Amino acid sequence: MAHQWQGIINEYRERLPFDDADAVVTLKEGGTPLVRAEKLAARTGAEVYIKVEGANPTGSFKDRGMTSAITQVVKEGTQIVACASTGNTSASAAAYAAKAGLGCAVILPAGKIAAGKLAQAIVHGANLVAVDGNFDDCLRIVRELTEKYPVALVNSVNPYRLQGQKTAAFEIVDELGDAPDIHILPVGNAGNISAYWMGYNEYAGHTTAASMDESATRLEPHATRLPRMWGVQAAGAAPFVAGHPIENPETVATAIRIGNPASWNYAVAARDDSRGWIRAVSDEDILRAQRILAEEVGIFVEPASAASVAGLLAAAESGEVPENARIVCTVTGNGLKDTATALAGRDIDFDPIASSLDAAVAALGL
Ligand code: F0G
């Protein structure tokens, strides 16, 4: 019988900080598709794979970190979780809190959350507060809140989040047989690039500053090499490119509209220790990459996710992509979360035709 995926904790328990006795809160996250993108290969001269994290239960990579964060919260006995969010973290926290029977408080930047994500937090029963400020303001509030009240913080400053998220790197190595030459992903609060770098390192038998224990050095390595980490930010929200926090971040990719990333030092280490880079791409380039992914690869992602492919294309244009390099781009969230941005500027007011084959054939121009 074919193996049925059991969620990232059950699949990778020996490399995660949980025992067999721990009750796992899971929606069977992970095990996401790694799709070969021939058209992107033709555009770049590399061997390109897309890691489709929008295929997770709530439609983003956050579920990997949320299964581990919420499992730990339940183990410790806290009844309420809280997060700041540009949308996806809140959607995931709300769903896993619902599964575990916990309360969930969500602090959001007012007016800057894609409709699909807001819908998710609401239907899963989270308690929502909209702040007149940006994500960085929300994170500051929720950090103070969770210090002063018996509420568990489930943003990626909670180390269990990165533990779960590192499993995406394990899956890539398991599928490709070793680490790729280059891994590209969008960077916002900078947890995910830190988690991938930890995952690649641990699978190769090393720890990083984000590691929670030494188990990686005891377990048999599954990778012989490490990738270069290429991070991509939106030009209006690119603190790593500026070298300092940005006060008023702005981008169409609202998920990465972040000016003061929490995992700054881990991300800088991932970039430098891997001899990689973090660059900025324009909103236009992000939306172009979103269209290319949809039209040429068959994958509909939200704008922030397309930043990884925008970064790949920019690197190819400037001659930085080594020929035949094996490259994995993570696309972090599902396009259905933000249809308004994807459809902006497109004519979607269809004039109905008569209900006949002839009228349909005429209208289609066949
Ligand atoms: N892509 C998407 C779709 C995201 O939602 C996020 C972060 C990122 C990329 C960046 O990842 O923060 O680990 O560097 N979203 C967070 C949220 C901030 O609240 O949902 P990161």
Furnish the topology, listing elements before pairings.
Blueprint: H1 8-11, E1 34-36, H2 38-44, E2 47-52, H3 62-76, E3 80-84, H4 88-100, E4 103-109, H5 115-123, E5 127-131, H6 135-148, E6 152-153, H7 159-165, H8 167-176, E7 182-186, H9 191-203, H10 215-218, E8 228-234, H11 239-242, H12 264-273, E9 277-281, H13 283-297, H14 303-317, E10 326-331, H15 339-343, H16 357-364
Parallel strand pairs: 2-10, 3-4, 3-6, 4-5, 7-8, 7-10, 8-9
Antiparallel strand pairs: 1-2
Helix pairs in contact: 3-4, 3-7, 4-5, 7-9, 8-9, 9-12, 13-14
This protein binds ligand F0G.
Ligand F0G is lined by residues 60, 62, 85-89, 156, 186-192, 255-256, 302, 304-305, 332-333.
Task: Explain what the structure shows.
It is a single chain. With 366 residues, the chain is an alpha/beta fold. The chain has two domains: 8-60 and 159-343, 3-Layer(aba) Sandwich (Rossmann fold); 79-149, Rossmann fold, CATH 3.40.50. Helix content is 42%, strand content 14%. The chain has helices at residues 8-11, 38-44, 62-76, 88-100, 115-123, 135-148, 159-165, 167-176, 191-203, 215-218, 239-242, 264-273, 283-297, 303-317, 339-343, 357-364, and strands at 34-36, 47-52, 80-84, 103-109, 127-131, 152-153, 182-186, 228-234, 277-281, 326-331. It has a six-stranded mixed sheet, with helices on both faces. It has a four-stranded parallel sheet with strand order 5-4-3-6. Helix 4 (88-100) runs parallel beside helix 5 (115-123) and helix 13 (283-297) crosses helix 14. The longest helix has 15 residues, at 62-76. The radius of gyration is 20 Å and the shape is globular. The chain starts with 7 loop residues before the first helix and ends with a helix. The model has no long low-confidence stretch (mean pLDDT 97). Ligand F0G binds at residues 60, 62, 85-89, 156, 186-192, 255-256, 302, 304-305, 332-333. It catalyses: O-phospho-L-homoserine + H2O = L-threonine + phosphate. InterPro entries: Ser/Thr_Dehydratase, Ser/Thr_deHydtase_PyrdxlP-BS, Thr_synthase-like, Thr_Synthase_bac/arc, TrpB-like_PALP, TrpB-like_PALP_sf.
